[in-house]
Write a structure and sequence with these properties.
Elements (H helix, E strand, L loop, with lengths): L1 E3 L6 E3 L12 H15 L1
Antiparallel strand pairs: 1-2
Length: 41
């Protein structure tokens, strides 16, 4: 992809980038939501 150097304005070609992703399990979501409900209620 093409990017720009903010200091000089020169165009720079960057390679591909790997962005790690994960799916949250239902159990984890429930734990987080329950703890937030306890905190704010």
């Amino acid at each position: 992809r093409i990017a720009r150097n903010p200091k000089t304005g020169a165009k720079v070609e960057l390679g591909r980038r790997f962005v790690p992703m994960f799916k949250v399990s239902k159990e984890f979501k429930k734990t987080v939501n329950d703890s937030l409900l306890e905190k704010y209620n």
